Amino acid sequence: MEKNKFINKISSLLFYISILTFIIAFNFAHNPPGGWYQQSLPNINGASIRDMTFTDSLNGYIVTSIGGSNSYILKTTNGGDNWDLKFTHNQPFVKVQFINANTGFTNAFTKIFKTTNAGENWNAINLPQIFGDDMSVLNEDTVWLAMSEGFTGGVFRTTNGGLNWIQQYSAGSQNPDKIYMFNPRIGFIVRNTSGAPNLRKTTNGGFNWFNVLNEGFVDMYFIDSLKGWRAYGNNMYLTTNGGSNWVVQILPSGGIILSTGINEFSNINSDTIFGAGGIAFYGSGQFRSIIYKTFNGGKNWFYQVPDTAIHSGTYQHIQFSDRLKGWAYWVSGGIHTLSGGDTAWLTNIKNTNTQIADNFILHQNYPNPFNPLTKIKYELKTPGFIKLNVYNINGKEVKTIVNEKQNTGVYEADFSATEYGSSLSSGVYFYSLFAGEELVDTKKMIVLK
Question: Who has greater pLDDT, 350 or 369?
Fold first, then answer.
């Protein structure tokens, strides 16, 4: 009798284990590992994404550059799994912002378009003699524009929904190309394309602007009038006194990270922030995009490299509707998470191969910035097969300078920005030294014309 009870218990246990195994296998098959999955756009004739925003976890909008003869406004109602074309225009769009679920604005070359029915229809607001490089929308009536053109540009504001525009600032060749307004009184402008950008602030609604520091921003967000973040260069920056002082927040670098930096970030609250930007190098021409995250307001930044089907050069846009649901997009598509990304968030990767670190040294190029010629110096304390490659900001290889076995010694290689069929444009480039298959180091250089 006792033996039969024992056998029955074992049989029941095996039955439940088999059920549990089936459930786990089913979920694994239908929910593959990794917290991100791929999303794509419909045919838009090669147009690039210029900006993206979501009003909740399902509804989102994308505006594009010119593709063919049109630019596009796309909308999703299912979290980005499908995008529908809602509007076309003959000038490139720049930015899109919504102030609530129904009301949004987007700016193009000489017009602003407004929707009041969640993007189903867009109506033009004319901009006499001005256009916007950047836009900041506070409410349905108050919109700010930054225009970098030297003669008619500056900062412009409307307080009646676009019926009238007032020029609030003009600085000729130093007119801004970025603007962020926290409220009707407080805001920041900068011209990032300047050789020495000046971050300026207003505290009286744009009637006066004063210099804060000689740096810029590619994205900015304030959680109140004193505490805010800005992304610029290779780091994030935090202020707790309204922008008078900024504390550097170091982003992960080194190891597989070829390029570090945030193009855009999304605040969930004062502690949790997600960022998009940076490139990881996996060897053999494999470049993948980086997602950044902080859990403590930027004191410590972590990163992950989503393993999706398409590996882009760098993510340009990111937004989270809450701590779990988010999107990261490059110029032609993107990825989506429903779980806050992959489980693992990494800190800085250090080169654990001490032999590589001891035996090979890559120096900073000189001059830097340069036009058109620069020199790259490196040292080999042991002989080996050496590669010295140059990459653009999107991780695409521009040139292999060295690809041969070399003996112990100090070497200096020349690199010219005009060596190719079409000369390299101004901007940031990277060069990497490899010993065999091992990445020794990567450094940044700037072409300035």
Answer: 369
